[in-house]
């Protein structure tokens, strides 16, 4: 609808300019019939881009001057007044188009500014939300973990060989492990939001990859996803928050899994690779999914950009914040739709200790 309206306006502006020209031609030059060209310019200003306005202003100039040569003559008006009239018409066209373009430019800038403000506000809301979630969930999670630990301790040793008790123990141990892990994710999320950093320690990249894979494996299994590892030997260590870096890999793995599911891919393989690079260590996650089309490639890391019906568009933006807070970078290796996507992280090596 908007497109039709814009095109209609353009046609109307051209028709009006030609109409004014015809009236101008059949009236004596002394009549100021070129002045209404300013209305044509006003019509073109509904478009934010100045190109059409400038083109129409040029057309109106040409028609105003052309009329001097083809019109029925000056009538009873002296020729110098005719020239002043034409000059006024050209002046009106220039002023209307210049002021209009300036106004449009100011409106565009203010729209962009409002957009940035709205985005910042949303980002702040998300940060507050993240802080609130991290704060509120910590306590019930700690309680869960404690209860499970108590249940484990209360389990009579004499029943250890009994069937139920034997089956209960690993389940309770899993509850303890998962709630402790959730707690540490929340803690590191809070630190990331608070100061952009987390707990720093020496991290072995291959161990990081294996650990992320261990957490991801249970969610990959029901979807028949094959997980492959290609790990380089003798990699330098990196320094960072292990939980945050693990979260980055889990985000990438989860995205690959979502890509398989949304495209109903038959071939479902995710390959995790590590390698030494000029910048330190590279970890890449490649999938055999549908890939990323070049049109959306630039937007992937924008906050709130998502193509999933239930997506939030936070995963890649947050992954980039984490990786950059570690002095590294993350990128989409090649947008080779339809043959899979590869996301790569590069982290600087741990600096050697000075003795
Ligand atoms: P979300 O997962 O909530 O959509 P993300 O920031 O993690 O948010 O991802 C943003 C978008 O990037 C996704 O909606 C998807 O379109 C695209 N994307 C990310 N990873 C892949 C992938 N492996 N294959 C295809 N598209 C991907």
Structure overview:
The N and C termini lie far apart (71 Å). The chain has a five-stranded mixed sheet with strand order 2-4-5-7-6, with helices on one face. The protein has a two-stranded antiparallel ribbon with strand order 1-3. Helix content is 61%, strand content 12%. The protein is α+β, with helices and mostly antiparallel strands and 355 residues long. It folds into three domains: 109 residues; 77 residues, Helix Hairpins; 147 residues, Histidine kinase-like ATPase, C-terminal domain (Heat Shock Protein 90). Bound molecules: adenosine-5'-diphosphate.
Helix-strand pattern, N to C?
A: HHHHHEHEEHEEHHEE
β-strand number: 7
Assembly type of the chains comes to single chain
Alpha-beta classification = alpha+beta
Q: What is the CATH C-level name of the largest domain? A: Alpha Beta
Which strand order do you get reading across the main beta sheet?
2-4-5-7-6
| N-to-C span | 71 Å
Small molecules bound:
adenosine-5'-diphosphate
